[in-house]
């Protein structure tokens, strides 16, 4: 290489200094682009894949190919946080349904007379779901029990009710209202309520 440069009357040191300066400009430009990529990545809470990140960079007047964006993301050790699809709902077997004993009377003058329960889910930072079952007392809207689990099933409903009953020394003449979810109409839950003297009440289907 040096022989060829001398034949062309080019000083080898001058050539290599030129190449070095050119790489320095490339590294500066690359560092600036990767900094912008990190800003966009965190702005969208890590949900951008390489294709959407490329589009966002174009809006910032930075044009890169999909291959280059993916390469830079790997160098930065960042990747899109993929939220798994919710599995199709499978309706559980209904062991027993109960009529609505409340008739929309959502008030009571005594504690531990009317409880209401339901499920919800909590979306974690890694995309996984945790399920929560809570029970409130309609006397003062206080939470008498709450429990989380990785599964939304009758076992979670029973465990939550068990906590509530123990904390309140197994109150008598208790009415527990819920929707007609398979967890509350299951044999496990209905038998548990019967065993502990809890009278179940349910909203009609479609009216939680």
What's the SSE blueprint?
Elements: H1 2-7, H2 12-43, H3 50-59, H4 66-76, E1 114-123, E2 129-137, E3 142-149, H5 154-167, E4 174-178, H6 187-195, E5 198-202
Parallel strand pairs: 1-4, 4-5
Antiparallel strand pairs: 1-2, 2-3
Helix pairs in contact: 3-4
Summarize the structure in short.
With 208 residues, this protein is an alpha/beta fold. The protein has six helices and five strands.
Write the element-wise H/E pattern from the N-terminal end onward: HHHHEEEHEHE
Please outline the major beta sheet. 5 strands, mixed
Residue stretches low in confidence (pLDDT < 50, at least 5 long) are none
Average pLDDT taken over every residue: 85
Beta-strand percentage range: 15-25%
> Total number of β-strand segments?
5
Q: Residue share in helices?
A: 25-40%
Class per helix and strand makeup: alpha/beta
Radius of gyration: 31 Å
Termini separation: 80 Å
Count of DSSP-assigned helices: 6
Gross geometry: rod-shaped
Placed side by side, the strands forming the largest sheet appear as 3-2-1-4-5
């Amino acid at each position: 290489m040096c022989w060829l440069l001398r034949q062309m009357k080019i000083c080898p040191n001058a050539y290599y200094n030129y190449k070095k300066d050119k790489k320095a400009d490339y590294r500066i430009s690359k560092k600036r682009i990767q900094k912008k990529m990190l800003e966009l990545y965190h702005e969208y809470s890590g949900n951008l894949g390489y294709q959407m990140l490329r589009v966002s960079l174009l809006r910032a007047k930075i044009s890169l190919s999909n291959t280059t964006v993916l390469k830079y993301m790997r160098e930065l050790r960042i990747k899109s946080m993929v939220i798994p699809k919710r599995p199709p709902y499978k309706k559980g077997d209904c062991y027993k349904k109960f009529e609505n004993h409340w008739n929309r009377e959502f008030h009571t003058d005594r504690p531990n007379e009317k409880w209401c329960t339901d499920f919800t889910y909590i979306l974690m930072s890694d995309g996984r779901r945790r399920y929560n079952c809570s029970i409130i007392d309609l006397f003062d809207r206080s939470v008498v029990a709450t429990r989380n689990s990785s599964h939304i099933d009758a076992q979670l409903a029973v465990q939550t009710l068990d906590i509530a009953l123990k904390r309140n020394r197994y109150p008598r003449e208790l009415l527990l209202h819920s929707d007609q979810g398979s967890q509350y109409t299951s044999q496990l839950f209905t038998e548990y309520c019967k065993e502990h003297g809890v009278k179940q009440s349910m909203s009609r289907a479609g009216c939680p």
